[in-house]
Amino acid sequence: MNRRAVITGVQGYVPDYVLSNKELEGMVETSDEWIRSRTGIKERRILKEPGKATSDMGVEAVRELLKKTNTMASEIDLTICGTVTPDTVFPDTANTINHKIGAKNAWGFDLNAACSGFLFSLSTGAKFIETKTCKKVIVVGADMMSAITDYSDRATCVLFGDGAGAVLLEPGSDDLGIQDEVLHADGTGREFLHMKAGGSLRPASLATVQNREHFVYQDGRPVFKAAVKGMMSSIESIMDRNGLTIEDIDWLVPHQANMRIITSISELMKFPLEKIMINIDRYGNTTSATIPLCLWEWEKRLKKGDKIILTSFGGGFTWGAIYLVWGYGI
């Protein structure tokens, strides 16, 4: 019998502050109707507290996760944090989370795959369970996108919000847990979705700050087309590999980037919208946090044995899908 990595708990966190479309109307030339018709977003959450960062949102999610799963911080072996907005370039956010929650026996690292950060982190964390290297792995998806959003750029400022989600992975049997994965990357996509400065190629300087190069840049049209194609092909590939039909799938959990992307996938694949987890209207695109936030909000509706496909697309480009069988019901 193979050892599978099973999600045994999920928790999310979003900040209290609600940034509505109405408020954005006073910040940039836009309107509620324009935003909703093009993105499906009505509001998003923003971390406003001084001195708070991505790790603090991750800590809120992980602390509640440990509480609800009756897990002590000292039991955690490994923490992986998918993020593009680390507290600092180094040390990494995962180890900062470990320190703040008192996980003294855990090691950790960050994984940057843009909006596919949680998906890639979940796949990586599962390998440490499957190979018997670890017994308890925390996977966090967290991003404070407000820190890298240009609120004078109408094309991007309406999209992003802040949030965090976390899952606990533990060993399980063949019939539950993560069953298969399809992951891809294509570096040619970096010209369409990136942050120009802040790395070793263009270190922070007076010029990069004055030129507003430390914010998200996105060329929407090619990203939209690549996202629909990439997520659809990943879903189809993983279904084919596992002999699944749309009727077999209980839930599809897509990255929440744009409602039009989600509806395009639904229509082209004839996948019922009522079986697709959607919360982009209230949270916007929280990057690595979108998928775990969906699982958290739908947790009470999930049943042990539910067949679920997670799929994402991110800058770089990065994309893929994970097929899992849900491990518990509440």
What's the arrangement of secondary structure elements?
Blueprint: E1 4-13, E2 17-20, H1 21-25, H2 32-39, E3 43-46, H3 54-68, E4 78-82, H4 93-101, E5 107-111, H5 117-130, E6 137-144, H6 154-157, E7 162-172, E8 177-185, E9 193-195, H7 206-210, E10 216-218, H8 220-241, E11 251-254, H9 259-269, H10 280-283, H11 290-298, E12 307-314, E13 318-325
Parallel strand pairs: 4-5, 4-6, 11-12
Antiparallel strand pairs: 1-7, 2-3, 6-7, 8-13, 9-10, 12-13
Main β-sheet description: 5 strands, mixed
Assign the CATH topology of the largest domain.
Answer: Peroxisomal Thiolase, Chain A, domain 1
Q: Give the SSE order as H and E letters.
A: EEHHEHEHEHEHEEEHEHEHHHEE
Radius of gyration: 19 Å
Could you tell me the strand content as a percent range?
15-25%
Q: Stretches where pLDDT falls below 50 for ≥5 residues?
A: none
Give the mean pLDDT: 97
Morphology: globular
How many domains? The number is 2
CATH architecture annotation name of the largest domain? 3-Layer(aba) Sandwich
Structural class: alpha/beta
Strand order of the largest sheet: 1-7-6-4-5
Helical amount: 25-40%
